[in-house]
Design brief:
- By secondary structure, the protein is mostly helical.
- It contains 5 helices and no strands.
Length: about 150
């Protein structure tokens, strides 16, 4: 696996963590930037030597992404509820179920596309030195994970 892929995987991990915490209980309860996700990002930004401008741009990308992901996740949940209701009907309309499955798949594909494009946007913010630090960080994380298995 080349170094670009490793760096992109780490950024995806951070974005995925961000999206998981978007609906976490501490969000919107007056803690602002004090949640664990923010602390993890701030520590990583400091270790990589990001400038204030890079941090600001990264946060804008993340917030924009979270807003879009919230809407898409809501659509997935709505379609899942529709499917559950269809499954309870007699007789079950299999064509309608298949349509809902396809719609859910399209929305999930859009979520993945959003994650990957945000990862690319974040990667473009980094200097070559920062990309190197990110790759080293990912390599060390990978080594630690392998040792835990």
């Amino acid at each position: 696996m080349n170094k670009k892929h490793i760096a992109l995987m780490l950024i995806i991990t951070v974005l995925a963590a961000s999206s998981l915490y978007a609906s976490a209980p501490w969000q919107g309860q007056g803690q602002g930037k004090k949640g664990p996700d923010s602390q993890m990002r701030q520590k990583m930004f400091k270790e990589m030597g990001l400038t204030k401008e890079q941090v600001k741009a990264s946060e804008e990308i993340r917030l924009d992404s979270e807003k879009k992901m919230i809407g898409l996740r809501g659509k997935v949940q709505e379609k899942n509820l529709d499917m559950r209701a269809e499954m309870r009907k007699e007789p079950v309309d299999e064509a309608k179920i298949d349509t809902l499955i396809n719609e859910i798949g399209l929305i999930k594909t859009e979520l993945e596309r959003l994650r990957v494009h945000n990862m690319i946007k974040l990667h473009k913010l980094l200097t070559p030195e920062q990309k190197s630090k990110l790759q080293e960080r990912e390599f060390q994380g990978g080594m630690n994970r392998r040792g835990d298995d």
